[in-house]
Amino acid sequence: MAFGRIVVVWAAVAAWLVTWPLAGAWWLVFLLLGTLMEWPVRSPIGAARITRVVASGGLLAWTRAE
Q1: How confident is the model at residue 10 (pLDDT cuts 50, 70, 90)?
Q2: 60 is a domain residue
Q3: Which residue segment(s) compose the domain that 41 sits in?
Q4: What is the pTM of this model?
């Protein structure tokens, strides 16, 4: 059971590190933040809250990209 959790977390971190240089990076940070705040997502409202955090991060990145 514990080994399975370690493998899942290892895969998540590996995916994070592979995806990081390919993307604009700001949205990954806010996606992680929103997901950590709402995990586990139990309803559409929780998914909407994650989307709200990502959208807020997008607005922040857009205003700082001068």
Answers
A1: very high
A2: yes
A3: 23-66
A4: 0.59
